[in-house]
Amino acid sequence: MEMAIREEDFLDNYLGLINGLSKESKMKLVESLNSDIKNNTIVEKDWIDKLYGSFVSNISAEAMISEIRTNRWFNREIADF
Length: 81
Known about the structure:
56% helix
C-alpha cells in the first residue's frame, strides 16, 4: 500500500510540472507516452548514468588524476596591506 501512495505522490508532482506546459508540448508528451506503452519498451539498466554526466573512458583513474594534477596552475597573488 505504501508503494501506491508514493507513486501517487510522484504522479501529483509530475502533473504539477505538466500543467505549466503548452498544449503542443502536452500533446507531444501524450503521444510519447502512448508510443512507449504500445511498444512496451525495455528500460535501459544504465539510465541513471545519463542523469549525472558520467562518461566512458579507457584511461585509468590514476592516469586521470595525474593528468589533472600536472595541468593545474595557480595564479595566486597576495595583496599587500
